[in-house]
Amino acid sequence: MPNFCNLGVMLRSLVVANAFVAAAAFLKTPSWTALPVELLATASFAEPVLIVSLALLCAARVPLQRMGYAGAVAALAVAQLALVWLAYKVGTQLAEAPLSLGFAQAAVLTFFVTGCVLGYLDLRSRALEPAIAEARIQALQARIRPHFLYNSINAVLSLIRSEPRRAERALEDLADLFRVLMAENRTLAPLASEIELVRQYLALESLRLGERLRVAWQVDTMPADALVPPLVLQPLVENAVYHGIEPSPGGGEIGIVVAQAAGRLEMTLTNPWAVEGRQTAGNRMAIANIRERLQLHFDAEASMRSGVEDGIYRVTIRMPYIAEKAAP
Amino acid sequence: MTLAGPAVPRILIVDDEAPARARLRDLLDECRPSMPLAVVDEAKNGREALEVLNREKVDIVLLDIRMPEMDGMEAARHIAGMPEPPAIIFTTAFDSYAIKAFELNAIDYLLKPIRLERLLTALRKAHAAPPVSQAALQAAANQPRRHLSVHERGKIHLVPIADVLYLRAELKYVTVRTLEREYLVEESLTSLETEFEPLFVRIHRNCLVARTAIAGFERNADEAESGWAVVVKGTGEKLAVSRRQQHVVKQFR
Fold first, then answer.
1. I need a labelling partner for B45 at 20 to 30 A (CA). Which of B35, B148, B171, B235 fits?
2. What is the nearest CA distance from A291 to chain B, expressed in angstroms?
């Protein structure tokens, strides 16, 4: 069953269902002049059923999930039959003239529309399945900047003789980082592990860049159990280092703020905007890639904004806050 | 170190990352038994490298490409203009563009992490071979320089492109005019025009004016061909616009 609490799914359902309502009204009317009245009559009956159905689907998401697809559809049919009956009763009470639609007709129309919406959503999710896999591969290619890998190895090599302990830690960080980079990253992962990954990445970078790289973390209030697409932040931090810190002889500060705001998770990344140097394809690719993955996971409920203001480049990501335990 | 004779190659390390410089030092130490050498100094970017070169005699520069302030490509082009330029060996962790350009123009480079044997081979080759040509470096570069280099009394002097008011070709040289003074560079006006494409506008067969340096236009009264002249911002100089370039005036009016 699709997640009906998702804004995108809701909107899609509303659009499809209303298209059917309009079509039904159109077929039933003999003339153009009678169409608005008929449309209104059908809508006044259909909209409450539609909206209550969607609300129920969202509210009862967890128990429905447990029933399996067929069970959930059956439960939905029963609920809708009751709804239609209720709407019909209320309708006949309120209306002065008899309704233009019979109870059986209304029930059949409701089932038909529901079936179409579910069918469409099912098809859509199937169509996106390969896209998720594709995005994973794309993400992998976009993410590993060879520049970073070779420079890090070079830095570790320089430490082996003088500071073997630090070299060991750096290699461990590198291994952890690549374990995630090479993993199947299709499912959401806890925010805490993404943040840890970013810390390890930054530890490696500061090995090379020393005091040029300064990081201001503001993650004290972040919900560590929130689920996020893996590697949603690390590529952006990598961009910040590559475009914001490395081109400047004195370096600069990267700001990372992760917080919960109004039931949503918000991440903001800032870095100095270096006008010089190659501002390029790499950055746009990472941004496009993350945006695509956010869309695949959260549809219309996630957003990503980036821009330059007062010499500071800022990326803000907002996504629904899904706690680890409540996850489907 | 200081006892090194004239035959011992003197090396300058240029890299913005401290660990990378340390690593090169270690490697060069290990080269010593098979090839006597001296490490003159280290520099953190192209500009510092040029300062060292003004001070010290250097035979080989190990030059990183991606560095802040002045990258290796630009530094190399200034170095190649020296009367007796040192040999340049580029070092890079990864730069697909630069590597392709080096291969095409037969410029030697080392990939980081650098192996001892590769470094030794490159050092030996660099010591024997003629220095990289200016033309090869220009062909390999993918972005314009930010400075022009003037070589005066064996020293490199950098003139920021942003300070240049106009460039005028005369005989063998090009005169570079800034607010303070004039310099001579041994480059062709045409290649300068191509390199700094949108910044300058050609007003005459022998003259390029910086767009930002144009204060206005004046009618050229005394000349027989009553054309326009550019008034240069700051100096008030007037530069004749040739008949063929009269259309330029329209762009600005």
1. B35
2. 27
Task: Determine which of A15-29, A302-316, B33-47, B182-196 has the lowest per-residue pLDDT on average.
Answer: A15-29
Q: Are A262 and A277 within 8 A, CB to CB?
A: no
SS3 call for B218: strand
The whole-angstrom separation of Cα A202 and Cα A256 is 12
The residues that bridge with B231 in the sheet, in sequence order, are: B216, B238
In a domain? residue B208: yes
Report yes or no: A282 at the B interface, CB cutoff 8 Å. no
Q: Is A146 near chain B, with CB under 8 Å?
A: yes
Range of the structural domain that residue A224 is part of: 144-320
**How do residues A118-151 score in pLDDT, each as one tens digit?**
888 888 887 777 676 666 655 555 566 788 889 8
Q: Are A255 and A202 in contact (CB under 8 A)?
A: no
A70 or B207, which is more confident? B207
Highest-pLDDT range among B85-94, B223-232, B241-250 = B85-94
Q: What is the mean pLDDT of chain A?
A: 84
CA distances to A269, B23, B67 from B112, in Å: 30, 10, 14
User: Among A122-131, A233-242, B39-48, where is mean pLDDT lowest?
Assistant: A122-131
Distance between first and last Cα of chain B: 64
B63 belongs to a structural domain = yes
Tell me which residues of chain B, numbers 12 to 41, contact chain A at a CB-CB cutoff of 8 Å: 16-20, 22-23, 26
Cross-strand partners of A267: A258, A317
CATH number at residue B194: 2.40.50.1020
3-state helix, strand, coil in chain B (%, to 5): 35, 30, 40
Q: Is residue A206 part of a domain?
A: yes
pTM of structure = 0.75
Determine contact, residues A325/A225, Cβ cutoff 8 Å.
yes
Domain count of chain A? 2
From B19, B20, B94, residue closest to A146, measured CB to CB = B94
Closest in A149, A209, A249 to B45, CB measured: A249
- Is pLDDT above 50 for A278? no
A279 near B CB under 8 A:
no
CA distances, B129 to each of A269, B59, B75, B86 (Å): 49, 12, 20, 11
**Confidence check: pLDDT of A68 > 60:** yes
The region that residue A35 occupies, defined by phi over 0 for left and psi between -120 and 50 for alpha, beta otherwise, is alpha
B171 & B112 share domain: no
pLDDT at B122 over 90: yes
Mean per-residue pLDDT, A246-264? 92
Q: Which chain A positions have a beta carbon within 8 Å of B113's beta carbon?
A: 150, 153-154, 157
